[in-house]
Design brief:
The protein has 641 residues and is of the alpha+beta class. The protein is 31% helix and 16% strand. Strands 3, 4, 8, 9, 10, 11 and 22 form a 7-stranded mixed β-sheet that branches.
Length: 641
Amino acid sequence: MYKDGKMYDWPYPVNYEAETEVETDVLILGGGIAGCWAAISAAKGGSKVAIVEKAATITSGAGGSGCDHWINTPNPVSKVTAEDCVDWESQNANGYLNNISRYIAAKESYDTLLEMEQMGGKIRDTNDEFAGADFRDEKTKFLFAYDYENKFHFRIWGKNFKSALYKECKKLGVKIYDRTMATSLLTDGGKQGTKVIGATGLNSRTGELFIFKAKATVMSMSRHSRNWAFSSELTGLGQFRPNIVGTGYAMAFRAGAQFTQMERSMPGNLSFGTSYPSYGTGNAMNTWFPCTIVDANGKQIPWTDRDGKELTDFDQRTHPVKGQKLFGERGMAYDYRRPDITPDMQKRVKNGEFALPLYADMTGMPQMERRAIWGLMVGNEGRTPTPIFRTYNEAGFDPDKDMLQSYLMLGGDWLRGATLPHVRIGGEGPGDSGGLVVDWNLKTTLDSLYAAGDSLFAANYHHHAAATGRYAGRKAAAHANQTEQTKPARKQIDNEKARVYAPIERKNGIEWKELNAGLARVMQNYCGNYKNDELLNIGLKWTSDIEKNVASTACASNPHTLMRTLGVLDILTCNQMILHTSLARKASSTYLGFNRLDYPEIDPPAYHKWITIHQEGKRVKTGELSLDFYGDMESNYEAHK
């Protein structure tokens, strides 16, 4: 191990090839928000439960370090329904929405939040810090964000939610296997497409192989990432969620599970080394909504409603316009479009009406709003408590008198700034990315395999991961109660051991960082902003050639780099999934960020549908589903809940 310019011995005992067998009722793959909720729910359902997590469950996952919003949650204070929540999201997504998981989340999010409170999570203004604020309900002491009239997006103190979930898992007797990377799904008879009966895992410190046997499995690992951009030596990992690689996707795909929407991507500074600290540069979106923005001369940038009408006072930013039922978080569809800074801002800057740089000016906002953004929201958002809130405060930043520079129009805004079109984000940023196809039990197309959180196609935020994890956990427990344990096929385990340990047998070969960078270049060149059959087929040839002649030489010097290497091999698999799905969509789509030069028509009726993908043997099969394959939401939920 190389550190601080010196070579050190590996600090853990290495036991390559050693096997440890674990037998459980319900196996949870991924110990993030969805995984912990699934484990808690399954344990409360009477099952013996195990979590497999490649990091440390107490803080791991996209929500591991905090949460400031709990959105799309109908509750007794609000008149908003689950149908309303799904409708605004569906319009926003032009119909490309997982209405199954979104409806489940909307129906169960409030109960999930209350259960979080029972575990010690703070969801109310119990100290009356914001008493009298427009966004507070005085009876319940709940605080709300965005739409203050409809009150269905909660503000919460979520930076300790993950540790509360971890403690609850331990309290319920859940066995947690940290620093263990799941590598494959075990199937009945070792055959692809059959019942899932467990998984294998690699300990990233000792190198030993774990064989997990289970009656039901919940896939709650995260999305694919680092597909288009990776240059760690120049920019660091350069990712919003740098350690996700899509291992769960690759595992499930190899086992024969069906995926959809894998072709979706968009340009994004979020995945390159040119962006600035997330939520730390002053903007009017998300955590910072509805912050006042001014130019270099202190001139305020106007806010406008959905019709482009300028809003003259602060309160108008947080209430729907006349005739509008509600507005959604980042809602852009007309019916639900939220207020925002004027859309012609860039034109007016170029014309000299406003001067760069722009600033977030909390000093010009009502005091309660200022304290909500800087003390509550930035203090609890997962990526800000330490790097932004604590660091800026220690440096002397005072929101009562200081402004914070925004990088809009300066090339560094990670949400709305310009970026190179071929530097794209797929799973890590767009929100509604590709993932596993599920039914109303959140069961995948493989028997005994359930999915929750970011492993679902068109997944969503913290509340969605929590609610779907809670739901999938109880479904898996019910299934496990009616299922017998199945013995894994020894041949399947031996084949997986040979694959997993191959890199440590090689003394010379390509290392994981170089391999990842090369794969990203292929995706930039052949699956970038503009696509056609020729480009995509060349991309598949390149990935096939790299898999056969380059990835096969990948080497690793210790269990940690072995984990990293296996992760990049999973990125390669995800790239192939993306390329195959892109070839199958013979049309363009604005929402999917999908531009086919040879099929330029935008969302023609014949292609306003889901493109599905799965593997049979070594062959990749594509198919389709209608956008509304989920059927009637209310009746299906009631029949399955």
